[in-house]
Amino acid sequence: MPRLSVLDQSPVSTGSTPAQALANSVSLAQHVEKLGFHRFWMSEHHAMDTLACTAPEIMLARIGAATSTIRLGSGGVMLPHYTALKVAETFQTLEALYPGRIDLGIGRAPGGGPIEATALRRYRTAPANALQVDDFPDQLSELLAFLHHDFPASHPFSRILLAPATPHAPRVWLLGSSLWSAEAAAQFGLPYAFAHFFSGDSTRAAISHYQRAFQPNNELGVDSLQRSEAMAAVGVICADTDAEAQRLAQSVRLLQLRIRQNDRRPIAEPSEAGSELARFGALPPESGEFPRYFVGTPEAVRDALTAMADSLGIGELVVNTITYDHQARLRSYALLAEAFGLQSRTPQFASTSNLSPQPILAEAASAA
């Protein structure tokens, strides 16, 4: 069976607050660490009432202090908004705080609408045509060179000391939902995470292309991959009965519909979501070989996820669960962990850290 990890987006429920959503993310990280999940990644989204996490690096610093063994990472940092050096320094700092636990997932998408993308641009005073230049490959090359001290001696940046110095760099993953990202990950020799829950039309094509085209990049030092490493991010909702899982999934189904309409309101309560969905009539069937969201009893979801991973030839799935009620979300992950036979663990906080976990409010504020 595939290894399981978690992608969290700090979903905000109607009647709750963004601050509570962020607290729920820390609570969730502690929960899935104890359940035995491998990684916990935080996403980056901007100017949305629906999703509260705009700065995954800050959340990872907080979550690192509240956990001790689970790998932590960004799913991902939207590199076009930032300079490569600043991203490298930020995640090098996280690596210094939590050695051997940090993943740096890099994305190319804006993480918001066109207005937000304009506001986040690194260049707004350049000639108009310069704003259209996609320098992502150059940025990624620069980021990897900073992290692995790999600038040519003649390059002016070779004299820059990336601080804080650590024995190992954060592990860089390339994120995407297209053949472009699959090709880039293959050419850079990076592990690849495909956002299947976002768009499932080209999942097999992208992952297969990455696996075929992968080229090892020995300039990454100890992090060099000699063979491809791909995983897919999928939506999951588990409950004790299929009927309850389908009820809970009404909220995320409405969310998916709203996003297509640029409606960024918070997560609706299931019965309200069902009523709103009914007003749209029959929704178009989902395209793609696999569902973007796997909904049902834990055993049924386990079997479907395992079949997907086996079919794609991947060894890890990243699970994203959005429900209106935070307790239902915690329960979904617990049921999934049990179905997959994950080994529960008791976190042991390293004595070398001056940080200690703080109590976290685990329950979401419920709507009146």
Quaternary structure annotation:
single chain
- Considering DSSP H and I runs of 4 or more, what fraction of the residues is helical? 25-40%
Q: What low-confidence regions span 5 or more consecutive residues with pLDDT below 50?
A: 350-368
Quick check: average pLDDT?
A: 90
**Portion in strands:** 5-15%
- CATH topology, by name, is TIM Barrel
Q: Would you count the extended β strands for me?
A: 9
Task: Based on the coordinates given, report the CATH architecture.
Answer: Alpha-Beta Barrel
Q: What does the main sheet amount to? A: 8 strands, parallel, barrel
What is the assigned CATH homologous superfamily?
Luciferase-like domain
CATH class category label? Alpha Beta
Return the string of H and E elements: EHEHEHEHHEHEHEHHEHEH
Q: What gap, in angstroms, lies between the N and C termini?
A: 41 Å
Q: What is the molecular shape?
A: globular
What's the SSE blueprint?
Elements: E1 3-8, H1 18-35, E2 39-42, H2 56-66, E3 71-78, H3 84-97, E4 102-107, H4 114-120, H5 136-147, E5 171-176, H6 179-188, E6 192-194, H7 203-213, E7 230-238, H8 242-260, H9 270-279, E8 293-296, H10 298-312, E9 316-320, H11 326-340
Parallel strand pairs: 1-2, 1-9, 2-3, 3-4, 4-5, 5-6, 6-7, 7-8, 7-9
Description:
It is a single chain. This protein has 368 residues and is α/β, with parallel strands linked by helices. It has one domain: Luciferase-like domain (TIM Barrel, Alpha-Beta Barrel). 39% of the residues lie in helices and 14% in strands. It has helices at residues 18-35, 56-66, 84-97, 114-120, 136-147, 179-188, 203-213, 242-260, 270-279, 298-312, 326-340, and strands at residues 3-8, 39-42, 71-78, 102-107, 171-176, 192-194, 230-238, 293-296, 316-320. Helix 7 (203-213) links the parallel strand 6 and strand 7.
